[in-house]
Amino acid sequence: xxxxxxxxxxxDIELNLRSNITVIxxxxxxxxxxxxxxxHRVEDRDDIICINYETIRPKANxxxxxxxxxxxxxxxxxxxxxxxxxxxxxxxxxxxxxDSGTNVFIIIGRxxxxxxxxxxxxxxxxxxxxxxxxxxxxxxxx
Amino acid sequence: xxxxxxxxxxxxxxxxIQVPWDSxxxxxxxxxxxxxxDSKIVADVEKTSLINNETIHGKFSDMPIGIGCLSEGxxxxxxxxxxxxxxxxxxxxxxxxxxxxxxxxxxxxxxxxDIDVYxxxxxxxxxxxxxxxxxIDGEIxxxxxxxSTRLIELQGA
Lengths: 142, 157
Prior knowledge:
The structure holds 2 protein chains of 2 kinds. By secondary structure, chain A is of the alpha/beta class. Helix content of chain A is 23%, strand content 29%. The longest helix of chain A has 13 residues. By secondary structure, chain B is α/β, with parallel strands linked by helices. Chain B has 5 helices and 9 strands; from the N terminus they run ββααβββαβαβββα. At the A-B interface, helix 1 of A face helix 3 and helix 4 of B.
């Protein structure tokens, strides 16, 4: 379990992550990109790296991000538009799948080509200026 | 009717719009012509309202925010609606993967009641609908569960 807590004047973000890959899914307009936007605006955390369709539109940026994933340790990658990003080629998802487990990936997408358990599927919850995630299924018994 | 095609065998006679919500920003070609039908999409799917062609009421706060903050699923529906309004809907195949179940349901029940929309999708969440005709790879379904099952088969093929 990894706990990520971010406090700001606008919204508090509190994430209790079960594993190093969390897939954020859910209906349209339930706060997925809103969550991404708030993570993207966090200024005092250099361990948080946000990626979306626009930021890696140029091929050079895409390749740079793939390399960043391969070379990083103890970072938190938040990836929005995963379904659209992965249509370009497999290298970004491959880099995530082959990560050594030191990084944390929060993937916003409906059908990412990743190795994950259904217990890693979660939805965003926004209540009383607090953003959390709620897992859709119970944690598997070990 | 919503006609979902096999993404691996898309016909050549229609333009494939792979990321409709991204196209939405180009030259403001969609937002420039928003009308009541678009307001209804924003109200029913996004659960908020348009203030003008560039601003919406924020859903998670009371602040007005830019229309670019709409969800990708809602933007996708606005793109499709633009094609319906301009009479070009039959020229396109829209990738609706950005649409969650609620947006697909709205597309299948409300937007395609009187018109055919060609689409492809890379997930199987079609929302919850009944007695609505959806065509998947040439086969017609009237309930979301069987339609979703067919989609899983199609995507796994």
